[in-house]
Recover the amino acids of this structure.
């Protein structure tokens, strides 16, 4: 994406520790039937906050923050992933993922071409597995029912095999094992892919390529992806994806727009809303409220966040007065499981916290947390 070159100072957000982590951000879900049913809001959890990764070339770490009832954050620790970051922006979404059973946190290590599984315990995070990513320069990761897929942007580091997705099984203790016959090339060998996501039922995998396509794959009962489809994007430079329901997909586009689609059980995308203006520049990250009524898009190039309404049929529209200025250029986004707070990672090494108005979805500043390393990346809010 355009903003990527400009933003080589993407900071690395920290990950959230977690006793009973039940509130995932819910952004990597898609689906099959043409009759949408909203993904249920996550249950409340005794421990609230978020995770991010420092993405440091000297050693990648996950940082955890707890959240108070008023939305303010407190750092509670950082935990080594056993791998390396790269110290600059990754032009991605989904560098971290919490497993469906909320027992493990999965993290990419782009500087060492591997991925980590960390067990979530009452004492924080414990590294339990480290595995080759199945390619070069992993930037995004997703999991469903013990099957993990990693998006590798090998073209970024000159890998002649290009960009791919590669699968793993995740054991009960967090062991990552390569899944045979699961490494598959994308449509373009160097399409600058940014995000990978599983459907809620685990039957579809979607990947955004900024070259202008959205790849989809069907997944069999053994977790192996196949039946690759190339779907043309409704907007230019598709970057980040979020699934509102099993059959509704939203995509933020770096050209300053967002689009929505219906998704068939074969992975065919049908455009619902095409390239709706976000009234911003470099609209590269997207997150949905837990009830599926709203989407927020981070406009890195214009230092603001756009708020969209989502209709029952999946169409989207920018809210009147739906653009909120941020103190620094926003990157990744995460909404708390109760839908009350939006956390924003910025290029200046800070986290901006906003309260979400229940009636209007407007944003009110709550706190700015500073001091994160340059290149911090990824955000999961609970």
């Amino acid at each position: 994406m355009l903003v990527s070159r400009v933003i080589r100072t993407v900071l690395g957000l920290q990950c959230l520790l977690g006793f009973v982590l039940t509130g995932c951000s819910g952004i990597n879900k898609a689906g099959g039937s043409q009759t949408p049913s909203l993904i249920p809001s996550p249950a409340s959890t005794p421990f609230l906050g978020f995770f991010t990764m420092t993405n440091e070339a000297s050693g990648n770490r996950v940082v955890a923050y707890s959240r108070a009832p008023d939305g303010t954050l407190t750092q509670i620790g950082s935990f080594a992933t056993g791998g390396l970051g790269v110290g600059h922006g990754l032009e991605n979404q989904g560098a971290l993922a919490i497993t469906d059973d909320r027992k493990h946190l999965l993290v990419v290590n782009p500087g060492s071409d591997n991925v980590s599984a960390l067990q979530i315990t009452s004492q924080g995070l414990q590294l339990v597995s480290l595995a080759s990513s199945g390619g070069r320069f992993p930037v995004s990761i997703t999991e469903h029912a013990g099957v993990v897929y990693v998006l590798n942007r090998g073209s970024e580091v000159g890998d002649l095999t290009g960009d791919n997705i590669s699968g793993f099984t995740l054991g009960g203790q967090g062991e990552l094992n390569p899944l045979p016959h699961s490494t598959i090339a994308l449509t373009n060998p160097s399409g600058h892919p940014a995000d990978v996501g599983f459907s809620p039922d685990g039957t579809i995998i979607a990947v955004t390529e900024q070259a202008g396509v959205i790849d989809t794959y069907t997944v069999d009962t053994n977790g192996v992806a196949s039946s690759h489809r190339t779907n043309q994007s409704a907007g230019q430079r598709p970057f980040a994806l979020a699934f509102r329901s099993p059959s509704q997909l939203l995509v933020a586009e770096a050209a300053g727009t967002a689009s929505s689609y219906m998704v068939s059980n074969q992975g065919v995308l049908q455009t619902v809303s095409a390239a709706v203006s976000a009234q911003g520049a470099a609209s590269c990250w997207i997150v949905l409220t837990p009830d599926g009524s709203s989407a927020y898009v981070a406009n890195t190039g214009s230092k603001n966040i756009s708020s969209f309404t989502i209709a029952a049929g999946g169409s989207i529209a920018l809210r009147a007065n739906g653009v909120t200025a941020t103190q620094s250029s926003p990157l990744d986004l995460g909404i708390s499981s109760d839908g009350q707070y939006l956390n924003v990672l910025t290029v200046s090494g800070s986290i901006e916290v906003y309260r979400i108005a229940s009636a209007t979805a407007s944003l009110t500043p709550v706190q700015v947390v500073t001091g994160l390393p340059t290149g911090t990346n990824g955000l999961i809010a609970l």
Q: What stands out?
A: Helices lie at 2-6.
